[in-house]
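[AMINO ACID CHAIN]
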Amino acid sequence: MKKLVKLIRGKVRLKLFAVLIVVIAVFLAVINLISYPILMRSFTNGTHSSMAAIVNAVNSLVPDPGTYYIDLYALAKNNNMDIEITDADDFLIYTTVGTGSALSSERFSTSGSTASQYLSMQTSSEVDTYGLENLEAKKRLATNADYFVYSGELEQGDKIFVYYSVANVKSVVDLADKVYSIFSIIIIAVLGIIFFIVFSKFIKPVEEINDVTKDMARLNFDRKCDDYGEDEIGELGRSINVLSNTLDNTLDDLKDKNEQLEKDIELRRALDNKRKSFIGNVSHELKTPIAIISGYAQGLYDGISDDPEVIREYCGIINEESRKMNDLVLELLELSKLESKSTPFEPEYYCIGEQVSMLIDHLSLQFERSDITVTNLVPRELYCYAEKDKIETVLRNYLTNAISHCSGENVIELGARDFSETTEIYVYNSGENIKSEDISEIWDSFYRADKAHGRSENRFGLGLSIVKSVMEKHSCRCGVQNLDGGVKFTFEVPKDKSYYGEDLQ
């Protein structure tokens, strides 16, 4: 028994079969339980209707002909019932109760002294008449048998009583109930066979799908589900196949991403090293001016000289070093703001051509001091949509960088090139090319490709880092290119507001 229960629990088709058979059996059993009272009431209603029909038939017979009582007898026996007719004083006129021929004295009394059977019967409490009109349940004391008694009145004023044995009704109901029980057993057996065959047909694809999913759990995606049609099972099979392909591709992607993750970890380590290097560079850049300021300030405090010129020289050095420290701090703050994106992005439409011309004028003294020839090819009426002060920072950094590295022909050239959505601005300076190993590094903080330039030029290696951050904020590109006889730095600016699309509200 335990093995059977275990087998049923382990198989879907057997489980469904067992559940359905149990449900059907319980349903038929419940119907069988409630069928007896339903059948009893139904047959009682039918008996009531038959009795009423007999009364109507008696009323339709013509009294006193020679065949009248024969017709009454035939009417009663054909319906397996008995009939009694009494006068208004309850004296028996005619009865079919008992034995004998239709015309015997037991069937017909002319004296009117015979008592009605109705008067000698008692009401039975064991039989329900369901409140049907003119119908009573009576018990015949002589035989202890229950009868349905239908009472009525004939047109000539006599009373009529129709008797039908309750046992006849119960026997028919018992027979119908037995037949129903037999048919219920047959139905359960037939449906069980049909259901088992049907379930086997429908469960087979599910079992195959289960085998495919087991292979998938073992990361074997070669096996696929067959085509099971257009129903839900077929759709499930196709979904399993799609899932199998997706998982197979996903695992391949995970392998690729795992390799990429390893690369990212290495990159993270490199960035961490850069961060440490950044902190070290900041410390180094601040250490020197702080040491100089501290030394000269201590000298003044100790009264190293009374000469006003020496004191003025010491103060000038302290002031210069303080200015360099201030410039470094300002550049660090600017770079921090750009990289943290803490300030709102508020571009505007303005003339970048005039901005370039004005900046060249502001730096004209440095150009003359370095004997540099500047050529401005940027159109005077060139407009763009960007943050004006940030673009000026980019231009200033490019120009001061060009001044620092300009050599050879001592030429700096500015120009513009038109693209579909942006305008490229370039700054070219003659001089030595940037080494190939330095090109990817020059955009990093505190990186100086030209190690020959010292602190005297007040350059900290932050300018190009700021340029890169500004361009990233504008979603634009910046770059550098080695040319024959010089280096060209470029950056792009949007032509109008449409460049940013819906990102700019």
